[in-house]
Prior knowledge:
Elements: H1 3-7, H2 14-27, H3 37-40, H4 42-53, E1 58-62, E2 71-76, E3 81-86, E4 92-96, E5 111-113, E6 117-118, E7 125-126, E8 132-134, E9 154-158, E10 161-165, H5 175-186, E11 194-204, H6 208-215, H7 221-224, H8 245-261, E12 268-270, E13 276-281, E14 312-317, E15 321-325, E16 330-339, E17 342-352, H9 363-388, H10 404-421
Antiparallel strand pairs: 1-10, 2-3, 2-5, 3-4, 6-7, 7-8, 9-10, 11-17, 12-13, 13-14, 14-15, 15-16, 16-17
Helix pairs in contact: 2-4, 2-10, 6-9, 6-10
Amino acid sequence: MNQNDLLNATCSSIEQARDEMAKLLEERDPNYSLPQPLYNDPYMFKADVEEIFEKEWLFVGMTSEVPNAGDYFTVEIAQNPVLIVRGRDGAVNAFHNSCRHRGSRICTAHRGKVANLVCPYHQWTYDTTGNLLFAGTDMGDDFDTKQHGLKKTHCKIAGGFIFVCIGKEEPQGDFDEFLETLETYMEPYDVANTKLATESNMYEKANWKLVLENNRECYHCNGSHPELLNTLLEWDDTNDPRAPQDFLDHYANMAAQWDAEGIPHEHKSFGPGLRNRIVRMPLKKGAEVMTIDGEHACTKLLGRIKNRQLGSMRILHLPNSWNHMQSDHFIVFRVLPISAQESMVTTKWFVHKDAVEGVDYDVERLRQVWDATNDQDRILGEENQLGINSVAYQPGPYSKTFEFGVINFLEWYSETVQNNLKK
Length: 423
């Protein structure tokens, strides 16, 4: 717990926090922001971690990040290190990155390639399916290696997206239905034939929910995101109550082009608060992708795509990801909590696997718009957090027209936490 967390603590124990959290969520006005402790109390943050990030499906990365056997990457989910590795059989496996000997992290690098997984502490060795192969010669004759394999996390894959759940039980619900739709909608992109071009990790001094709230509305866009609005139309989808007729006409024209190419585009959503949502939206007329000038970012198109003006397929997965799929590259975003007032926002850009850096694409140009937008959002989130920490803060009203996405997010958050607290 850091000093700021301690200063903002309103609860004295996790048990008190869980009781108080249930009461605050039950009594909250759904059209207002949350009570202060839910944004800055360290014990309520711990309850958030236990009831959301240790029980729900989380997006961690893409299968094309581990294209070959032995390729791996690591991720830390609120002090829970997780390892994603491609096995020799081609399957993508997810493990707790914790040695069964004395708990040390096995893979300490962010990403790499291995023949086997070797703990650097005492050289216990596992294969890429988690079986313990070697534990030294001093464990005794009765030591059973089969009982000391790596602990797996729940893992599901669809459309190249990797989701994990680190809890003991697999979450129930309509997640598989979402995955089936995701598989269909991602088919045109052929993720297996893409590669990670570049990535960024941005530390933000704000509660994870404030990061998501900021993402779920474009009320702030005109005043904060000039680079993004060079190409992005702020309407959330065709059901957006603010959408004017000229946008609806533009959408209809683009939808006809998508249909002609067999590109899925109808709005699909699943779960409370539209937890999982996929919708294809056009960019501004004439724009190809989200670059500073709207022109292409990579000379090679993805998958079977032929139309450069494909717009952006937006994929939302609560609690921790939003994504933009475009004609020549796609961008995935991942949010993970660090503390009550700290979060990590990871952004990854993918291009065709045969694209050559410096020839087919320029990394700086690829990143320019979202590097600027991410930093602008970081400042907004941090200022939001500082203001919420004030003794004068009280929940404020959301615009049902401009901030319905935030209302939806907090509907999902409130319902999920309340349900999980009862289990």
